[in-house]
Protein backbone atom coordinates (compact mmCIF):
# COMPACT_ATOMS: atom_id res chain seq x y z
CA UNK A 1 0.00 0.00 0.00
CA UNK A 2 0.88 3.70 0.02
CA UNK A 3 2.41 3.57 -3.48
CA UNK A 4 1.10 7.00 -4.51
CA UNK A 5 1.87 8.44 -1.08
CA UNK A 6 5.54 7.57 -1.57
CA UNK A 7 5.71 9.78 -4.64
CA UNK A 8 7.22 13.25 -4.17
CA UNK A 9 3.91 15.13 -4.26
CA UNK A 10 4.85 18.79 -4.18
CA UNK A 11 3.27 22.21 -3.98
CA UNK A 12 5.42 25.31 -4.30
CA UNK A 13 5.12 27.97 -1.61
CA UNK A 14 3.67 30.54 -4.01
CA UNK A 15 0.82 28.22 -4.95
CA UNK A 16 0.24 27.35 -1.31
CA UNK A 17 0.17 31.00 -0.23
CA UNK A 18 -2.45 31.73 -2.86
CA UNK A 19 -4.43 28.64 -1.87
CA UNK A 20 -4.34 29.15 1.89
CA UNK A 21 -7.26 31.61 2.11
CA UNK A 22 -9.39 29.25 -0.01
CA UNK A 23 -8.59 26.33 2.29
CA UNK A 24 -9.49 28.31 5.38
CA UNK A 25 -12.71 29.53 3.78
CA UNK A 26 -13.68 25.96 2.79
CA UNK A 27 -13.02 24.68 6.30
CA UNK A 28 -15.08 27.42 7.92
CA UNK A 29 -17.91 26.99 5.40
CA UNK A 30 -18.04 23.35 6.47
CA UNK A 31 -17.43 23.81 10.19
CA UNK A 32 -19.77 26.69 11.05
CA UNK A 33 -22.99 25.05 9.75
CA UNK A 34 -22.07 21.99 11.81
CA UNK A 35 -21.74 24.25 14.86
CA UNK A 36 -25.13 25.82 14.13
CA UNK A 37 -27.09 22.65 13.34
CA UNK A 38 -25.42 20.39 15.92
CA UNK A 39 -26.37 17.28 13.92
CA UNK A 40 -23.05 15.54 14.50
CA UNK A 41 -19.60 15.94 16.03
CA UNK A 42 -16.32 15.41 14.22
CA UNK A 43 -13.19 13.49 15.22
CA UNK A 44 -10.06 14.11 13.14
CA UNK A 45 -7.30 11.59 13.87
CA UNK A 46 -3.78 12.42 12.73
CA UNK A 47 -1.52 9.39 12.88
CA UNK A 48 1.34 7.81 10.98
CA UNK A 49 5.10 7.59 11.08
CA UNK A 50 7.12 9.58 13.60
CA UNK A 51 8.78 12.57 12.00
CA UNK A 52 6.12 12.92 9.27
CA UNK A 53 5.04 16.35 10.50
CA UNK A 54 1.88 15.43 12.36
CA UNK A 55 2.34 18.20 14.93
CA UNK A 56 2.94 20.84 12.27
CA UNK A 57 -0.13 19.77 10.33
CA UNK A 58 -2.34 19.80 13.44
CA UNK A 59 -1.11 23.27 14.39
CA UNK A 60 -1.91 24.64 10.94
CA UNK A 61 -5.34 23.02 10.83
CA UNK A 62 -6.09 24.38 14.29
CA UNK A 63 -5.18 27.87 13.06
CA UNK A 64 -7.46 27.64 10.03
CA UNK A 65 -10.63 26.46 11.80
CA UNK A 66 -12.78 28.30 14.34
CA UNK A 67 -10.92 27.59 17.58
CA UNK A 68 -14.01 28.34 19.69
CA UNK A 69 -15.56 25.06 18.54
CA UNK A 70 -12.38 23.06 18.18
CA UNK A 71 -10.19 21.22 20.65
CA UNK A 72 -6.90 19.40 20.16
CA UNK A 73 -6.61 16.31 22.35
CA UNK A 74 -3.03 15.08 22.48
CA UNK A 75 -2.25 11.77 24.16
CA UNK A 76 1.08 10.42 25.26
CA UNK A 77 2.04 7.86 27.85
CA UNK A 78 -0.76 6.93 30.23
CA UNK A 79 -0.84 8.67 33.58
CA UNK A 80 -1.85 6.80 36.72
CA UNK A 81 -5.47 7.89 36.27
CA UNK A 82 -5.65 6.22 32.85
CA UNK A 83 -3.67 3.15 33.92
CA UNK A 84 -6.39 2.30 36.43
CA UNK A 85 -9.07 2.22 33.72
CA UNK A 86 -9.71 0.37 30.42
CA UNK A 87 -7.63 1.49 27.39
CA UNK A 88 -10.38 3.49 25.68
CA UNK A 89 -11.50 5.36 28.80
CA UNK A 90 -9.55 8.56 28.17
CA UNK A 91 -10.84 8.82 24.61
CA UNK A 92 -14.44 8.38 25.75
CA UNK A 93 -13.84 11.05 28.39
CA UNK A 94 -12.77 13.61 25.78
CA UNK A 95 -15.39 13.04 23.06
CA UNK A 96 -16.68 16.32 21.59
CA UNK A 97 -20.36 17.31 21.80
CA UNK A 98 -22.49 17.54 18.66
CA UNK A 99 -21.50 20.60 16.68
CA UNK A 100 -17.93 20.45 17.99
CA UNK A 101 -14.72 19.14 16.40
CA UNK A 102 -11.80 17.41 18.12
CA UNK A 103 -8.40 16.85 16.58
CA UNK A 104 -6.93 13.71 18.12
CA UNK A 105 -3.15 13.60 18.20
CA UNK A 106 -1.69 10.34 19.48
CA UNK A 107 -4.90 8.37 19.19
CA UNK A 108 -6.01 4.91 20.23
CA UNK A 109 -3.86 3.51 17.43
CA UNK A 110 -0.52 4.78 18.73
CA UNK A 111 -0.23 2.41 21.66
CA UNK A 112 -0.89 -0.76 19.70
CA UNK A 113 1.31 0.48 16.85
CA UNK A 114 4.30 0.88 19.15
CA UNK A 115 3.56 -2.28 21.11
CA UNK A 116 3.47 -4.29 17.89
CA UNK A 117 6.63 -2.69 16.48
CA UNK A 118 8.57 -3.48 19.66
CA UNK A 119 7.03 -6.97 20.00
CA UNK A 120 5.30 -6.19 23.29
CA UNK A 121 2.12 -7.88 22.05
CA UNK A 122 1.60 -10.98 19.94
CA UNK A 123 -0.58 -11.31 16.83
CA UNK A 124 -3.60 -12.46 18.81
CA UNK A 125 -3.49 -9.47 21.17
CA UNK A 126 -2.95 -7.16 18.19
CA UNK A 127 -6.01 -8.53 16.38
CA UNK A 128 -8.13 -8.24 19.52
CA UNK A 129 -7.06 -4.62 19.96
CA UNK A 130 -8.02 -3.80 16.36
CA UNK A 131 -11.37 -5.54 16.81
CA UNK A 132 -12.02 -3.48 19.94
CA UNK A 133 -11.19 -0.29 18.02
CA UNK A 134 -13.51 -1.23 15.14
CA UNK A 135 -16.39 -1.74 17.57
CA UNK A 136 -15.58 1.55 19.30
CA UNK A 137 -15.51 3.52 16.04
CA UNK A 138 -18.67 1.90 14.71
CA UNK A 139 -20.52 2.77 17.91
CA UNK A 140 -19.35 6.38 17.68
CA UNK A 141 -20.45 6.58 14.07
CA UNK A 142 -23.86 5.14 14.91
CA UNK A 143 -24.21 7.86 17.55
CA UNK A 144 -23.57 10.66 15.06
CA UNK A 145 -19.79 11.13 15.13
CA UNK A 146 -18.00 11.84 11.83
CA UNK A 147 -14.64 10.03 12.07
CA UNK A 148 -11.84 11.03 9.69
CA UNK A 149 -8.49 9.26 10.06
CA UNK A 150 -5.29 10.46 8.40
CA UNK A 151 -2.13 8.41 8.11
CA UNK A 152 1.02 10.38 7.23
CA UNK A 153 3.73 8.48 5.38
CA UNK A 154 7.33 9.42 4.76
CA UNK A 155 10.11 7.63 2.84
CA UNK A 156 12.96 6.49 5.04
CA UNK A 157 15.57 8.65 3.31
CA UNK A 158 13.45 11.78 3.82
CA UNK A 159 12.89 10.87 7.46
CA UNK A 160 16.65 10.52 7.95
CA UNK A 161 17.31 13.86 6.27
CA UNK A 162 14.87 15.58 8.61
CA UNK A 163 16.55 14.06 11.65
CA UNK A 164 19.91 15.40 10.53
CA UNK A 165 18.44 18.89 10.30
CA UNK A 166 17.02 18.52 13.80
CA UNK A 167 20.45 17.54 15.11
CA UNK A 168 22.02 20.63 13.57
CA UNK A 169 19.54 22.75 15.51
CA UNK A 170 20.53 20.93 18.71
CA UNK A 171 16.96 19.84 19.36
CA UNK A 172 18.29 16.93 21.38
CA UNK A 173 15.04 16.17 23.17
CA UNK A 174 13.49 15.03 19.88
CA UNK A 175 16.42 13.19 18.41
CA UNK A 176 16.57 9.96 20.42
CA UNK A 177 12.91 9.06 19.96
CA UNK A 178 12.92 9.94 16.27
CA UNK A 179 16.13 8.04 15.52
CA UNK A 180 14.51 5.01 17.15
CA UNK A 181 11.53 5.53 14.86
CA UNK A 182 13.85 5.62 11.85
CA UNK A 183 15.45 2.35 12.92
CA UNK A 184 12.00 0.72 12.90
CA UNK A 185 10.76 2.41 9.72
CA UNK A 186 10.09 -0.85 7.88
CA UNK A 187 8.24 -2.45 10.80
CA UNK A 188 6.20 0.71 11.35
CA UNK A 189 5.20 0.78 7.67
CA UNK A 190 4.14 -2.87 7.74
CA UNK A 191 2.17 -2.52 10.96
CA UNK A 192 0.60 0.66 9.63
CA UNK A 193 -0.51 -1.19 6.51
CA UNK A 194 -2.12 -3.86 8.67
CA UNK A 195 -3.91 -1.28 10.79
CA UNK A 196 -5.29 0.52 7.74
CA UNK A 197 -6.40 -2.69 6.05
CA UNK A 198 -8.21 -3.86 9.17
CA UNK A 199 -9.79 -0.59 10.29
CA UNK A 200 -10.55 1.52 7.21
CA UNK A 201 -14.32 1.25 7.08
CA UNK A 202 -17.05 3.33 5.52
CA UNK A 203 -17.96 4.73 8.94
CA UNK A 204 -14.31 5.53 9.76
CA UNK A 205 -12.14 5.75 6.62
CA UNK A 206 -8.38 6.17 6.51
CA UNK A 207 -6.80 8.75 4.20
CA UNK A 208 -3.12 8.17 3.44
CA UNK A 209 -1.24 11.42 2.86
CA UNK A 210 2.34 11.86 1.60
CA UNK A 211 4.30 14.07 3.98
CA UNK A 212 7.48 14.85 2.10
CA UNK A 213 6.19 18.32 1.23
CA UNK A 214 4.57 20.22 4.16
CA UNK A 215 2.49 22.47 1.91
CA UNK A 216 0.99 19.59 -0.06
CA UNK A 217 0.46 17.58 3.14
CA UNK A 218 -1.44 20.34 4.90
CA UNK A 219 -3.48 21.30 1.83
CA UNK A 220 -4.52 17.67 1.37
CA UNK A 221 -5.48 17.39 5.04
CA UNK A 222 -7.56 20.58 5.03
CA UNK A 223 -9.28 19.93 1.73
CA UNK A 224 -10.24 16.38 2.70
CA UNK A 225 -11.65 17.48 6.07
CA UNK A 226 -13.70 20.26 4.50
CA UNK A 227 -15.03 17.96 1.78
CA UNK A 228 -16.01 15.21 4.19
CA UNK A 229 -17.81 17.58 6.57
CA UNK A 230 -19.66 19.19 3.66
CA UNK A 231 -20.77 15.82 2.28
CA UNK A 232 -22.05 14.79 5.71
CA UNK A 233 -24.00 18.04 6.00
CA UNK A 234 -25.57 17.52 2.58
CA UNK A 235 -26.50 13.87 3.09
CA UNK A 236 -27.38 13.96 6.75
CA UNK A 237 -26.10 10.40 7.12
CA UNK A 238 -22.89 8.39 7.25
CA UNK A 239 -21.38 7.80 3.83
CA UNK A 240 -18.04 6.56 2.60
CA UNK A 241 -15.69 9.30 1.45
CA UNK A 242 -12.90 9.04 -1.12
CA UNK A 243 -9.83 11.25 -1.16
CA UNK A 244 -10.20 14.20 -3.55
CA UNK A 245 -8.40 13.63 -6.90
CA UNK A 246 -7.29 17.27 -7.05
CA UNK A 247 -5.47 18.94 -4.16
CA UNK A 248 -5.35 22.73 -4.31
CA UNK A 249 -5.85 22.75 -8.06
CA UNK A 250 -3.06 20.21 -8.55
CA UNK A 251 -3.88 16.77 -9.92
CA UNK A 252 -2.94 14.17 -7.32
CA UNK A 253 -0.18 12.06 -8.84
CA UNK A 254 -0.74 8.33 -8.51
CA UNK A 255 1.50 5.29 -8.76
CA UNK A 256 0.14 4.76 -12.29
CA UNK A 257 1.26 8.25 -13.32
CA UNK A 258 4.77 7.47 -12.11
CA UNK A 259 5.31 4.41 -14.35
CA UNK A 260 8.26 4.96 -16.66
CA UNK A 261 6.84 4.27 -20.12
CA UNK A 262 10.20 4.65 -21.85
CA UNK A 263 11.36 1.11 -20.97
CA UNK A 264 11.93 -1.04 -24.06
CA UNK A 265 13.58 -4.24 -25.20
CA UNK A 266 14.94 -5.11 -28.62
CA UNK A 267 13.86 -8.28 -30.41
CA UNK A 268 17.04 -10.36 -30.00
CA UNK A 269 17.46 -9.96 -26.22
CA UNK A 270 13.68 -10.31 -25.86
CA UNK A 271 13.64 -13.74 -27.51
CA UNK A 272 16.58 -14.89 -25.40
CA UNK A 273 14.95 -13.77 -22.16
CA UNK A 274 11.57 -15.13 -23.16
CA UNK A 275 13.04 -18.60 -23.72
CA UNK A 276 14.89 -18.37 -20.41
CA UNK A 277 11.89 -17.45 -18.29
CA UNK A 278 9.48 -19.75 -20.07
CA UNK A 279 11.83 -22.65 -19.34
CA UNK A 280 12.10 -21.62 -15.69
CA UNK A 281 8.31 -21.34 -15.47
CA UNK A 282 7.88 -24.77 -17.02
CA UNK A 283 10.36 -26.32 -14.58
CA UNK A 284 8.77 -24.62 -11.58
CA UNK A 285 5.29 -25.76 -12.56
CA UNK A 286 6.53 -29.37 -12.65
CA UNK A 287 8.07 -29.35 -9.19
CA UNK A 288 6.60 -31.54 -6.47
CA UNK A 289 5.95 -28.60 -4.15
CA UNK A 290 3.70 -27.05 -6.78
CA UNK A 291 0.97 -29.35 -5.46
CA UNK A 292 1.04 -27.38 -2.21
CA UNK A 293 0.11 -24.06 -3.79
CA UNK A 294 -2.17 -22.59 -6.40
CA UNK A 295 -1.37 -19.61 -8.62
CA UNK A 296 -3.79 -16.80 -9.42
CA UNK A 297 -2.66 -14.30 -12.04
CA UNK A 298 -4.59 -11.07 -12.48
CA UNK A 299 -4.13 -8.89 -15.57
CA UNK A 300 -5.53 -5.38 -15.59
CA UNK A 301 -4.48 -2.31 -17.50
CA UNK A 302 -5.36 0.25 -20.11
CA UNK A 303 -7.39 -0.99 -23.07
CA UNK A 304 -4.99 -2.29 -25.75
CA UNK A 305 -2.12 -2.49 -23.25
CA UNK A 306 -1.29 -6.05 -24.28
CA UNK A 307 -2.89 -8.18 -21.60
CA UNK A 308 -3.79 -10.95 -24.05
CA UNK A 309 -0.30 -11.08 -25.54
CA UNK A 310 1.30 -11.28 -22.10
CA UNK A 311 -1.07 -14.08 -21.08
CA UNK A 312 -0.24 -16.10 -24.20
CA UNK A 313 3.48 -15.96 -23.34
CA UNK A 314 2.72 -17.16 -19.81
CA UNK A 315 0.61 -20.17 -20.78
CA UNK A 316 2.87 -21.33 -23.63
CA UNK A 317 5.28 -23.32 -21.39
CA UNK A 318 2.51 -24.64 -19.10
CA UNK A 319 0.73 -27.99 -19.31
CA UNK A 320 -2.81 -27.14 -20.55
CA UNK A 321 -4.22 -29.47 -17.93
CA UNK A 322 -3.08 -27.25 -15.04
CA UNK A 323 -4.28 -23.80 -16.10
CA UNK A 324 -7.47 -22.03 -17.06
CA UNK A 325 -7.75 -18.57 -18.60
CA UNK A 326 -10.82 -16.62 -17.52
CA UNK A 327 -11.73 -13.66 -19.77
CA UNK A 328 -13.96 -11.44 -17.62
CA UNK A 329 -16.68 -9.34 -19.23
CA UNK A 330 -19.91 -7.81 -17.97
CA UNK A 331 -21.67 -10.03 -15.41
CA UNK A 332 -24.53 -12.23 -16.59
CA UNK A 333 -28.02 -12.08 -15.10
CA UNK A 334 -27.13 -15.13 -13.02
CA UNK A 335 -24.04 -13.37 -11.67
CA UNK A 336 -25.87 -10.10 -11.03
CA UNK A 337 -28.31 -11.98 -8.82
CA UNK A 338 -25.46 -12.82 -6.41
CA UNK A 339 -22.69 -10.92 -4.56
CA UNK A 340 -20.11 -9.70 -7.09
CA UNK A 341 -17.29 -11.92 -5.79
CA UNK A 342 -19.37 -15.05 -6.34
CA UNK A 343 -18.33 -15.46 -9.97
CA UNK A 344 -14.66 -15.26 -8.98
CA UNK A 345 -14.92 -17.66 -6.07
CA UNK A 346 -16.34 -20.16 -8.57
CA UNK A 347 -13.16 -19.79 -10.63
CA UNK A 348 -10.65 -20.27 -7.80
CA UNK A 349 -8.29 -23.09 -8.88
CA UNK A 350 -7.36 -26.17 -6.93
CA UNK A 351 -3.85 -26.39 -5.52
CA UNK A 352 -1.31 -27.30 -8.18
CA UNK A 353 -3.18 -25.29 -10.82
CA UNK A 354 -3.16 -21.80 -12.33
CA UNK A 355 -6.15 -19.49 -12.75
CA UNK A 356 -5.43 -16.59 -15.11
CA UNK A 357 -7.82 -13.65 -15.12
CA UNK A 358 -7.97 -11.33 -18.11
CA UNK A 359 -9.67 -8.59 -16.09
CA UNK A 360 -11.01 -9.55 -12.70
CA UNK A 361 -12.80 -8.53 -9.51
CA UNK A 362 -11.03 -5.19 -9.88
CA UNK A 363 -13.61 -4.13 -12.45
CA UNK A 364 -15.70 -3.26 -9.39
CA UNK A 365 -13.40 -0.33 -8.63
CA UNK A 366 -12.60 0.51 -12.25
CA UNK A 367 -15.37 0.15 -14.85
CA UNK A 368 -18.20 -0.09 -12.33
CA UNK A 369 -16.89 2.96 -10.48
CA UNK A 370 -16.26 5.16 -13.52
CA UNK A 371 -19.37 4.15 -15.45
CA UNK A 372 -21.64 4.34 -12.42
CA UNK A 373 -22.61 0.65 -12.43
CA UNK A 374 -21.73 0.46 -8.72
CA UNK A 375 -22.83 3.03 -6.15
CA UNK A 376 -20.30 5.28 -4.43
CA UNK A 377 -20.54 3.23 -1.24
CA UNK A 378 -20.35 -0.11 -3.06
CA UNK A 379 -17.09 0.55 -4.89
CA UNK A 380 -15.45 2.22 -1.88
CA UNK A 381 -16.36 -0.73 0.31
CA UNK A 382 -14.97 -3.11 -2.32
CA UNK A 383 -11.34 -2.25 -1.54
CA UNK A 384 -11.56 -3.92 1.87
CA UNK A 385 -13.65 -6.77 0.51
CA UNK A 386 -11.05 -7.46 -2.18
CA UNK A 387 -8.17 -7.30 0.29
CA UNK A 388 -9.92 -9.78 2.55
CA UNK A 389 -10.67 -12.06 -0.41
CA UNK A 390 -7.03 -12.07 -1.49
CA UNK A 391 -5.80 -12.58 2.07
CA UNK A 392 -8.04 -15.60 2.37
CA UNK A 393 -6.49 -17.00 -0.81
CA UNK A 394 -2.90 -16.38 0.31
CA UNK A 395 -3.56 -17.67 3.83
CA UNK A 396 -4.62 -20.92 2.18
CA UNK A 397 -1.29 -21.08 0.37
CA UNK A 398 -2.09 -19.50 -3.00
CA UNK A 399 0.19 -17.09 -4.81
CA UNK A 400 -1.63 -14.01 -6.08
CA UNK A 401 0.24 -12.06 -8.79
CA UNK A 402 -1.40 -8.87 -10.01
CA UNK A 403 -0.24 -6.89 -13.04
CA UNK A 404 -1.19 -3.41 -14.18
CA UNK A 405 -0.09 -2.95 -17.80
CA UNK A 406 0.24 0.72 -18.66
CA UNK A 407 0.49 2.58 -21.96
CA UNK A 408 0.23 6.24 -22.90
CA UNK A 409 -2.90 7.81 -24.31
CA UNK A 410 -1.08 8.35 -27.62
CA UNK A 411 0.05 4.73 -27.86
CA UNK A 412 -3.46 3.53 -27.13
CA UNK A 413 -4.81 5.62 -30.01
CA UNK A 414 -2.18 4.17 -32.33
CA UNK A 415 -3.10 0.61 -31.32
CA UNK A 416 -6.82 1.27 -31.66
CA UNK A 417 -6.33 2.49 -35.23
CA UNK A 418 -4.10 -0.47 -36.04
CA UNK A 419 -6.79 -2.85 -34.81
CA UNK A 420 -9.38 -1.22 -37.02
CA UNK A 421 -7.11 -1.55 -40.03
CA UNK A 422 -6.15 -5.20 -39.45
CA UNK A 423 -8.86 -7.70 -40.36
CA UNK A 424 -7.95 -10.36 -37.80
CA UNK A 425 -7.73 -7.75 -35.01
CA UNK A 426 -10.96 -5.89 -35.70
CA UNK A 427 -12.86 -8.01 -33.18
CA UNK A 428 -10.63 -6.55 -30.46
CA UNK A 429 -11.90 -2.99 -30.90
CA UNK A 430 -15.45 -2.00 -29.96
CA UNK A 431 -17.51 1.16 -29.56
CA UNK A 432 -17.16 0.70 -25.82
CA UNK A 433 -13.36 0.94 -26.12
CA UNK A 434 -13.70 4.31 -27.83
CA UNK A 435 -16.18 5.52 -25.20
CA UNK A 436 -13.89 4.44 -22.37
CA UNK A 437 -11.05 6.35 -23.99
CA UNK A 438 -13.01 9.59 -23.54
CA UNK A 439 -12.78 8.99 -19.78
CA UNK A 440 -9.02 8.43 -19.72
CA UNK A 441 -8.42 10.75 -16.73
CA UNK A 442 -11.22 9.19 -14.68
CA UNK A 443 -9.87 5.70 -15.28
CA UNK A 444 -6.35 6.86 -14.38
CA UNK A 445 -7.57 8.19 -11.03
CA UNK A 446 -9.55 5.00 -10.36
CA UNK A 447 -6.53 2.83 -11.21
CA UNK A 448 -4.28 4.87 -8.92
CA UNK A 449 -6.73 4.57 -6.02
CA UNK A 450 -7.07 0.84 -6.70
CA UNK A 451 -3.33 0.26 -6.50
CA UNK A 452 -2.97 2.40 -3.39
CA UNK A 453 -5.75 0.60 -1.56
CA UNK A 454 -5.07 -3.00 -2.65
CA UNK A 455 -1.32 -3.41 -3.10
CA UNK A 456 -0.58 -5.45 0.01
CA UNK A 457 2.49 -7.36 1.15
CA UNK A 458 0.66 -10.64 0.53
CA UNK A 459 -0.77 -9.65 -2.89
CA UNK A 460 1.27 -6.76 -4.31
CA UNK A 461 0.66 -5.06 -7.62
CA UNK A 462 3.39 -5.17 -10.26
CA UNK A 463 3.25 -2.03 -12.39
CA UNK A 464 4.47 -2.76 -15.90
CA UNK A 465 5.32 -0.33 -18.68
CA UNK A 466 3.66 -1.84 -21.74
CA UNK A 467 4.49 0.87 -24.25
CA UNK A 468 6.95 -1.69 -25.55
CA UNK A 469 5.20 -5.08 -25.58
CA UNK A 470 8.40 -7.09 -25.46
CA UNK A 471 9.51 -5.34 -22.29
CA UNK A 472 6.11 -5.93 -20.68
CA UNK A 473 6.03 -9.64 -21.48
CA UNK A 474 9.46 -10.22 -19.95
CA UNK A 475 8.53 -8.28 -16.80
CA UNK A 476 5.44 -10.43 -16.38
CA UNK A 477 7.28 -13.72 -16.91
CA UNK A 478 10.12 -12.74 -14.60
CA UNK A 479 7.77 -11.64 -11.82
CA UNK A 480 5.80 -14.91 -11.95
CA UNK A 481 9.02 -16.94 -11.85
CA UNK A 482 10.36 -14.93 -8.91
CA UNK A 483 7.14 -15.38 -6.93
CA UNK A 484 7.00 -19.11 -7.64
CA UNK A 485 10.65 -19.64 -6.69
CA UNK A 486 9.88 -18.24 -3.23
CA UNK A 487 7.44 -21.09 -2.64
CA UNK A 488 8.31 -24.09 -4.77
TrEMBL record:
Lineage: superkingdom: Bacteria
Domain Polyphosphate kinase-2-related span(s) in chain numbering: 12-231, 265-485
Keywords: ATP synthesis
UniProt xrefs under InterPro entries: P-loop_NTPase, PolyP_AMP_Tfrase, PPK2-related
A Pfam match: PPK2
Catalytic activity: [phosphate](n) + ATP = [phosphate](n+1) + ADP
Keyword presence, DNA repair: no
This protein's record includes keyword Cytoplasm: no
Protein name, entry field: Polyphosphate:AMP phosphotransferase
Organism: Roseibium denhamense
